[in-house]
Amino acid sequence: MRKRLMVTGAGGFVAGSIIQDAVNGWEVHGVSRSPAPVEMSNLVWHQLPEVDADCLHDVFHDIEPDALIHTAALADIDFCEANKELAEQVNTTLTRELAELCEDHDTRVVFLSTDTVFDGERGLYTEDDPPHPVNFYGTTKVRAEEAVASVGGNAVIARVALVMGLPVLGAGNSFVSRMIATLEAGKNATAPSNEVRSPVDVFTLGRALVELAGNDFLGRIHLSGNDVLNRYDMMLRIAARLGYAPDRIIAQDPSGIPGRAPRPRDVSLSNAKARAVLQTPMAGLDEGLELVLASRK
Ligand SMILES: NC(=O)c1ccc[n+]([C@@H]2O[C@H](COP(=O)([O-])OP(=O)(O)OC[C@H]3O[C@@H](n4cnc5c(N)ncnc54)[C@H](OP(=O)(O)O)[C@@H]3O)[C@@H](O)[C@H]2O)c1
Fold this sequence. Notes:
The protein is of the alpha/beta class. The chain has a single domain, classed as Rossmann fold. 38% of the residues lie in helices and 18% in strands. It has helices spanning 13-22, 53-63, 77-82, 84-104, 136-151, 175-184, 202-214, 231-241, 272-277, 285-294; strands at residues 4-8, 27-32, 43-47, 67-70, 108-114, 155-160, 163-164, 189-192, 196-197, 200-201, 219-223, 229-230, 249-252. The strands form four sheets. The chain has a seven-stranded parallel β-sheet with strand order 3-2-1-4-5-6-11, sandwiched between helices. Helix 1 (13-22) packs across helix 7, helix 2 packs parallel to helix 4 and helix 4 (84-104) packs parallel to helix 5. The longest helix has 21 residues, at 84-104. The two termini are 33 Å apart. The protein binds NADP nicotinamide-adenine-dinucleotide phosphate. NADP nicotinamide-adenine-dinucleotide phosphate (NAP) binds at residues 9-15, 32-34, 51, 71-75, 90, 112, 114, 160, 162-163, 172-173.
């Protein structure tokens, strides 16, 4: 019999890749506020009217998962800055509730944190560097990491770098989709030249997270790509691969835009630990882009 994997935020960007990979070996239970975007064998969809602690308790007890990948979050940095109470509730409190449920039921939990836990003053952060977020989204994730660590148990804190790709099953938070939509509408796309990241493609990330759900690694791990570059250079390379002229991508310093929360300068992550402990090979930008474009419908 297959083991059961519960995935929260199942309608989101990263969850789509997790689910597509996981149905090969697990009985996957997607938990979402949205209807199932597809029907697949080995996928059971649980649509909830809202994702609060009570609903999560009920659905957790229905599923009785062997492992949980917790992707659900408010991941829009500016929205979190403007809606702190809600951001704390969704990103921190729900994570703590789920970590406690997992600990009580001997369920392995993989929690998705972020590179934005760091202040970006240095770059190439390792798992042992102390977090120091510059915005409230990062703060909610640091608090969630602390909650997961203090609950203990069979837990992984996966710090995810900027995710590069197109939605795999549903929709969600894809900067490549937004860039393509802008360019296809005949407008130029803007990109910050002062934000350095180590992007991970959505397929490698999904595979790595599913591997972590099934192995015995414990603690913090950074899931990032092999290349470090600023977001403008990243967009230029993606646009070129898609056949757009370089002058369609405009470098911008967005720090003064009203309502924009502070961003860390360089939150590139060292993926040395991931390369040492995972069988999933970490990819560079071009390799990741090939995976993404090969799956483009
Ligand atoms: N994308 C990135 O570049 C990136 C980088 C670092 C870390 N991360 C982390 O990776 C995880 C997945 O991110 P993503 O890019 O896939 O984001 P996403 O596309 O926005 O998906 C997040 C999902 O969380 C659920 N969610 C949103 N608001 C909610 C609320 N108020 N209550 C309950 N659930 C809610 C939604 O799932 P349903 O629609 O299914 O309900 C949503 O689709 C997040 O934890 C994010 O912080 C992402």
